[in-house]
Amino acid sequence: MLTAIGSKTVSSVTALGQWGVFSWQMVRWLLPGLVQWRTWVRAMPLFFEVGNRTLPVIMITGTFVGLVLAVQSYDQLRAAGFENRMGVLVTLSLVQELGPVLAGVMVAGRVGGALTAELGTMRVTEQISALSAMGVDPIRQLVVPRFLACLLLTPLLTFFCDMCGSLAGWFVAVVLKGIPSTHYWYYIADAIESWDLMVGFVKSVVFGGALAIIACYKGFHCRPGAEGVGRACTESFVISFIIILITDFFIGTFFSGLYRGIHGFKSLV
Amino acid sequence: MDRTTAAIGDTPANHESIVRLVGVHKRFGNLVVLTGIDLDLRAGKTTVIIGESGVGKSVLLKHIVRLLRPDRGEVHYRDQRIDNLPERDLTAIRPRFGFLFQLGALFDSMTVAQNIAFPIREHTRRKRHEIDKIVREKLSMVGLDGIQAQWPAELSGGQRKRVALARAIALDPEIILYDEPTTGLDPPRADVINELIIKLQRELGVTSVVVTHDMASAGKVSDRILMLYQGQFIFDGTPGEIIHCQDPRVRCFVEGRCHEEDLDSLQVKG
């Protein structure tokens, strides 16, 4: 029993150390790579892959979350006499919380799993070793472009998620419930501050970067065989999902405290 | 020319040392693979490392190009110790090696031409037409000119290995490392690879290290044969010498017979 716990602890600490080294190596290649044309040439097809793969599912998710939020909140808001502010509830929920989290989870599922599978297959078939043997660093060649694609596109996809959710909320409020369209948009413009947009942006950047590193690390360190690759894909998604939720809590708490310290309490009504 | 005859009287001692392994140890968890390997590779010669499956031949080959780091011991390339170099410094040394992986390890997201052009693009500033010319030359050397636009998935096993070999020689390396080059190929295709190894050594003057358990291939291409057994070399000599070696472990391998203990474990009688 004690041996098993000890062995598990050692392997977990070792894996964490390997992940730290992997991330550090990625950062070391990333910083000089940002000003190299080749880095962006390598990343360009991945921008298309990440965006193209995820945009439709992000738009569908954002739309239906917006619809559900609007439908669920309408009766309570009406009872309190705040139905005109329904747009604030829907949009603020999306901009600060649901948009970044849903976009992060969708990118983790749709792109992270594919990245792990692709890199895992390359590892199993020795393509990654072939890169090293040629004197080409596989982290610079494979990880940096994928990291950049996830890091830069997750905020953009989050923006689409927010937009679709907000428009879906407008549809329920204005078309189905008869709230004036000007009221819907006026209260949103009045309540949503650049701070809220910044918080959502920071979250989406962190989620995008984290899921890219996790997906690439799992691909680079997967076990041999089809089962190894499959297991790495599952672990990649599960770990990304948990990390997104945990970091969401800490970033949310940090910025909430910071806002209160700078501006004081903000009432939406 | 008969390779066996060529090796006699032209001993490796006449040539300068290009790679040297000193007391290399390697283990993976509880599995001990290499236990103090000493190896001196002579420039311009073909050294074949034979041994049973799983004995650590590929592990040894990967130490030469530092794809694996020894737990203990040293690896030298010419006068430079490379086992303790950081990854970044190895990028300057590795292009001097060409590595043919067991399954080819071609990049499946690239065409044949892109695969061969890849190391040239990464390490030189050649123009596109120059790279195309080199790709054509290298493909001609392995007898496959004209398949530049094909994808690795469209090639047969033998073609894939020949394309991988063309990629391995794209930067005109000093040393070519072959990991099981004939495994999985039918005898005529395997012989094509053997002829290619001989041709490349003759035309490019490269130093070759071939890891194999194919004795026909070893006998044909080698100047020197080493046999790895339980983490140590138990034979080091010419192809002519291995035929007359009386060590029962070497004899079993050369003659393709299983060991007595293996027979006992199968409970084969008689």
How would you characterize the overall build of this protein?
The complex is a heterodimer of chains A (269) and B (270). Chain A is mostly helical. Chain A has one domain. Chain A has 8 helices and no strands. Chain B has 270 residues and is α/β, with parallel strands linked by helices. Chain B has one domain (3-266): Rossmann fold. Chain B is 38% helix and 24% strand. A 6-stranded mixed beta sheet of chain B has the order 6-7-8-3-9-10, with helices on both faces. In chain B, strands 2-1-4-5 form a 4-stranded antiparallel beta sheet, covered by helices on one side. In chain B, strand 4 and strand 5 form a beta hairpin. In chain B, helix 5 (128-141) crosses helix 6. The radius of gyration of chain B is 19 Å and the shape is globular.
Topology (elements, then pairings):
The complex is a heterodimer of chains A (269) and B (270).
Chain A: H1 2-33, H2 37-80, H3 86-124, H4 127-133, H5 138-176, H6 181-191, H7 194-220, H8 225-263
Chain B: H1 3-7, E1 17-28, E2 31-42, E3 46-50, H2 57-64, E4 72-77, E5 80-81, H3 87-93, E6 97-100, H4 112-123, H5 128-141, H6 157-168, E7 175-179, H7 187-204, E8 207-212, H8 215-221, E9 224-229, E10 232-237, H9 239-243, H10 248-255, H11 260-266
Helix pairs in contact in B: 4-5, 4-6, 5-6
In short:
The complex is a heterodimer of chains A (269) and B (270). Chain A is mainly alpha-helical. In chain A, 88% of the residues lie in helices and 0% in strands.
